[in-house]
């Protein structure tokens, strides 16, 4: 039996074709908050980890604009204060709590601070995440461990604190930010993909426990974005030898909107955008082929085409001063690098 052999460009074309078919089927509408959703947000308290940049910052400002109370958690206190100022200007209330999500004590302090200030927690959004890029054996084992500490153990700690509070008060929504890699593990992202698979299964297990308990007022949702242009790529540890990147990135806006939306309209799993939805469907139908295509694409863009870059631990152990916006400007950088590569030929 012959195995289908595809070049990276052919694989990308095939994957995009499958995704386009899914989009045209009419099933790929990304959810967005509407003005009519304001009563569902106003006055409610949202704990958001990883709120200093990327999706977390965007979600905090989006919810604040609808008069939500946002509890901002991350390691960069000064940046959080900046986000809080913007949130208040947008019409919301904001509380800054310096937090390393890999510390159970920090998570408990975060929960206490939110309750002391606002009296309850309506929604807890586990968004904080880090990455370590490179061949599995080239990434130091301590870096893999740190990714697990933040992306999986941090979500477990946050989910545990949230669920205990929800059981006490009788209601609440837990939102965990997973990834398309929760379904489709990507080459050179081994420990990151492992954590995102764990996040999805954690949410699914908690959802079943909620169902079995008979509760209809507690919910859990897992958001599954496609690769997005945020400061994640600047903050990632990198041992690939090239600048961090991925093909066909989405902007962060639709993920911000979807995460804010699902926090008041819970869904068990929410792939965001037509590419994410299509990839999940493709993987359910053709798992090996989809993983092979995805790996070829990652190899082509990250290993073969990326300009050289030195090894770095990124923000794994200490926060970085750079990368404080929602957008990461990775796509713009990739365009510049591609133009320079063509000129050098």
Automatic annotation (TrEMBL):
Keyword vocabulary terms for this entry: Oxidoreductase
CC per GO annotation: membrane
Any Pfam family: adh_short
Bias (Basic and acidic residues) ranges: 328-345
Oxidoreductase among keywords: yes
Transmembrane segments: none
Region (Disordered): 305-345
Occurrences of domain Ketoreductase (ranges): 44-209
GO molecular-function term, one example from the UniProt record: oxidoreductase activity
Family the entry assigns: Belongs to the short-chain dehydrogenases/reductases (SDR) family.
UniProt-recorded name of the protein: Short-chain dehydrogenase
Organism this protein belongs to: Stutzerimonas zhaodongensis
Lineage: Bacteria, Pseudomonadati, Pseudomonadota, Gammaproteobacteria, Pseudomonadales
């Amino acid at each position: 039996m012959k195995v289908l052999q595809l070049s990276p460009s052919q694989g990308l074309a095939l994957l995009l074709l499958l995704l386009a078919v899914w989009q045209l089927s009419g099933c790929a509408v990304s959810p967005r908050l509407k003005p009519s959703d304001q009563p569902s947000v106003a006055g409610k308290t949202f704990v958001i980890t990883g709120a200093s940049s990327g999706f977390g910052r965007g979600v905090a400002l989006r919810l604040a604009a609808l008069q939500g109370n946002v509890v901002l958690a991350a390691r960069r206190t000064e940046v959080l204060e900046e986000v809080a100022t913007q949130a208040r200007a947008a019409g919301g209330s904001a509380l800054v709590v310096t937090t390393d999500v890999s510390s159970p004590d920090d998570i408990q302090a975060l929960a206490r601070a939110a309750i002391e200030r606002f009296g309850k927690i309506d929604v807890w959004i586990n968004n904080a995440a880090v990455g370590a890029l490179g061949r599995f054996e080239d990434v130091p084992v301590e870096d893999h461990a740190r990714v697990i500490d933040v992306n999986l153990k941090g979500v477990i700690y946050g989910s545990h604190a949230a669920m205990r509070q929800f059981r006490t008060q009788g209601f609440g929504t837990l939102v965990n930010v997973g990834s398309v890699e929760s379904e489709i593990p990507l080459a050179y992202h081994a420990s990151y993909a492992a954590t995102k698979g764990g996040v999805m299964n954690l949410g699914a297990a908690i959802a079943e426990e909620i169902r079995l308990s008979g509760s209809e007022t507690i919910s859990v949702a897992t958001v599954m974005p496609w690769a997005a242009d945020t400061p994640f790529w600047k903050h990632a540890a990198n041992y690939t030898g090239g600048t961090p990147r991925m093909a066909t990135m989405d902007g962060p806006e639709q993920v911000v909107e979807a995460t804010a939306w699902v926090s008041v309209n819970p869904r068990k799993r929410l792939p965001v955008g037509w590419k994410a939805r299509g990839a999940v469907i493709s993987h359910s139908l053709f798992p090996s082929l989809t993983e092979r295509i995805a790996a070829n694409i990652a190899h082509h863009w990250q290993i073969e085409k990326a300009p050289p870059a030195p090894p770095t631990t990124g923000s794994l152990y200490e926060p970085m001063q750079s990368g404080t916006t929602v957008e990461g400007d990775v796509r713009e950088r990739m365009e510049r690098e591609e133009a320079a590569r063509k000129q050098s030929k």
